[in-house]
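Standup notes
- DV: blocked on the single-chain target, sequence here:
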Amino acid sequence: MALLGPGLAPGLPLLIAAAFTLGLTNGALDVSMNGLASGIETRWGAPIMSSFHAAFSVGGLVGAALGAAMATRSSPLMSAMSIVAIANIAGAALAWRALRDPTPALAPPASGFAWPDRAALWLCGCVALGLLCEGAVGDWSAVYLANELSAPPSLAAAGYASFSAMMIVGRLSGDWFVARFGQARTVRYGGIASAFGMGWALVAPYPQASALGFGLVGLGVSNVVPIVFSAAARVGSSPAAGVAMAASAGYSGLLLGPVLIGALATLFGLKASLWLLVAGAGVIALTANSMRDSA
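- DV (later): unblocked, structure below
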């Protein structure tokens, strides 16, 4: 229902309040559905978390396409969000009987705010770096292609399009990789691929070649979040509690990443600041060994 708020807001103060409410409800939904997915994965007996996140990525692309299609309407925001709100309500109604917690909590849930457990600290750092890379590529890849490589507007979005498309490919194949190579090696290879892809994007002399590098970044980070969420669900007092710890750290990285890149770009230039993502991806690869501790 909160999806209806931004489209109905008559002014900036109410728009901010509506956006805050939407973020609050979406954050709670994100934690609960990942906790539920982790419980289902445990009962399933095989890795399936990446498939859930692939559906999430496909939904993001469908939502973007819907927004673009509605852009010529007299009230595009209201139309698009109304359709999505109705679809969500219908989906929840159809799945209502299946929406039950498949795994009981290991301990009574604590009240109030809780810091991440020591066992989950490295997981939180890993997912924060993964989402930092996602947010920075989403906000700065088009700017980089346009400003640094003189890409025309029609080509400037190719970096993020390539990133998003390869992220879907990576998540659709992620469960197979986890079953074949394990969580630790999948995260390690993903970190290496992301570091190489980001480095290639920054040294490539042409926009098309740079966009391919951004695509490799998407392929590399595609399974970091689902794997870490799956692992975090096993170290908390309940799946939702573990996911909440990882999500809080992860979305802090998603929020701060683009801002940090912007601040560094002001001081050192955009190209130099984006090398921070190469280092972040390298750290993900190095910390992947700790995955065995919670696997």
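- Follow-up: The two ends are 37 Å apart (CA to CA).
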